[in-house]
Amino acid sequence: MAAVKKQPDDYVIRLCESPLEVGASAWNELLAAQDQPTPFMRHEYLAALHASRSATADTGWQPSFVTLWRGDELHGACAFYVKDHSYGEYVFDWAWANAYEQHGLAYYPKGLVAVPFTPVPGSRLLARDDAARETLARGLPALCEKLELSSLHLLFLSPADVRACEAAGLMARHTVQFHWENQGWDSFDAFLAGLSQDKRKKIRQERRKVAEAGVTFRALRGAQIGDREWDFFYRCYDRTYREHGNPPYLRRDFFRRMAADMGGNWVLFLAQRNGRDVACSLVAVSDESAQPAVAYGRYWGAIERVDSLHFEACYYQPLQWCIEHGVQRFEGGAQGEHKMARALMPVKTHSAHWLAHPSFADAVERFLAREGEGIEHYLEHLEARSPFRREKG
C-alpha cells in the first residue's frame, strides 16, 4: 500500500494493488453506511473478481484501489482500475477513444471507478461523511494526472456520489435502465391486473407457451444451489456469451467464491423439461438488512430452444419471486426497451467524467449537454408508452 498525497483536513490517499490489501470488515462497514449499498461493492465480491483472475491487469483491469485515511482510521475508499480498453463498462466511450486516436493521442490507459462487468447503480465513493466523499472526488483527477492517465470515469453513481462529483467539477453523463417497482401487489395476478389489456394478454400468452412446452421452474437460493447447479449455470452462461462471439467475462472460479462467501445473495431459477435441466437465470439480491430489498437480473442461458423461455426465466419467474418474498425493486440491467413490455420502467442512471486534455474536455462537455437533452426527450417518449392500465376519468 503506497501513500500518494496528503489532502486537506489531514487526509492521506493511499493506493492498493489488490482489494485484499484493504480489510474486509473495514470496507464493508463503510459500504453499509452509504446511501445506496449493493452486494456488488462488498469486499467479498470485488476480491473474488481479483482472486479468480476475472478482473486483473491481464484482462485489462489493473486494480489500484484508492483508500482515504486520517491517521490509522479508514475514512473513504473506492474501487479504482487502470484500463487499457472499454469493455465490461456499459457506459460507452468508444467514440471518445476514436477521436483521441484520430488526433494522434492516446486515450488508454484511463482511470475507472466502477464494479467490473456490473452495470448496477449504487455507491461508488465509500466515505464516512460528505467531506471525505468530496475529498475522494477531488483527489481522483489529481491521481489520474500523477499516473499520466487520459481521463477518469465514475460509473453508475449513487445520489451522494453525484453530489460529490458535481462539487468537484466533474462532467455529468446520464444513461437509461429499466427497473420494476412493486406498487403494492401481493400476487403475480394482481400485478398483471395493473397492466393494460394488451400487455397483460401478451404476458399470459408467453407464460402459457412455456408451460405447454412442458417446462417447469425451481427457485434455489444460497446453500440450495449445489455444485451441480452452479456447473449447469456456468455452462449456460458460457454458451450465451460464445453465441454472441465472445468469451465470458467471469470465470468459473468467481462463482465458486460467490457460493462460498456470498451464497445468500444469489437466487437461481432453474428450468427443467422432461426431467432435464434446459435453462436458468441467475439473480442477485441485496443483503437481508437492506431496505428496500432489491433484486438484480444478472445472467441467463439455455441449452434448448423454447419459445418465450427467455422472458419466463429472466422476468416472470424473478418478478413472481420478488412479489412472494417482499422484494420491492427488480433492476433489469443495462439497456433494453423490450423490458417495458414486462413493466420495467425507465430510470435515469448517472456517471461522472474528467478528461486531462483541455480541448477534448471542452468538446466532451458540449457533447454531454446535447446528449443529456436527448436523454430527457427519450425518457418522455418512454413514459408515454407506459404498460400500465390508464384509469378512465
CATH top level assignment of the largest domain: Alpha Beta
CATH 4th-level superfamily of the largest domain? Gcn5-related N-acetyltransferase (GNAT)
Radius of gyration: 22 Å
Fold-level CATH name of the largest domain = Aminopeptidase
| Uncertain segments | none
- Report the average pLDDT across residues: 95
Molecular shape: globular
Strand order within the widest sheet? 3-6-7-9-16-10-15-14-13-12-11
The helix/strand class is: alpha+beta
Residues in β-strands, percent: 25-35%
What does this structure look like?
One of its GO terms (molecular function) is transferase activity. This is N-acetyltransferase. The protein is of the alpha+beta class. The protein has two domains: 2-178 and 347-383, Gcn5-related N-acetyltransferase (GNAT) (Aminopeptidase); 183-327, Gcn5-related N-acetyltransferase (GNAT) (Aminopeptidase, 3-Layer(aba) Sandwich), CATH 3.40.630. Helices cover 37% and strands 26% of the residues. The chain is built from eleven helices and 16 strands. The protein has helices spanning 24-32, 43-51, 94-102, 130-146, 159-167, 188-193, 197-212, 227-243, 252-261, 309-324, 358-383; strands at residues 2-7, 11-16, 61-63, 65-70, 73-78, 80-83, 110-113, 126-127, 151-154, 171-181, 215-221, 266-273, 276-285, 294-302, 329-334, 345-355. The strands form two sheets. Strands 3-6-7-9-16-10-15-14-13-12-11 form an eleven-stranded mixed sheet. β14 (294-302), α10 and β15 form a beta-alpha-beta unit. α8 runs antiparallel to α9. The model has no long low-confidence stretch (mean pLDDT 95).
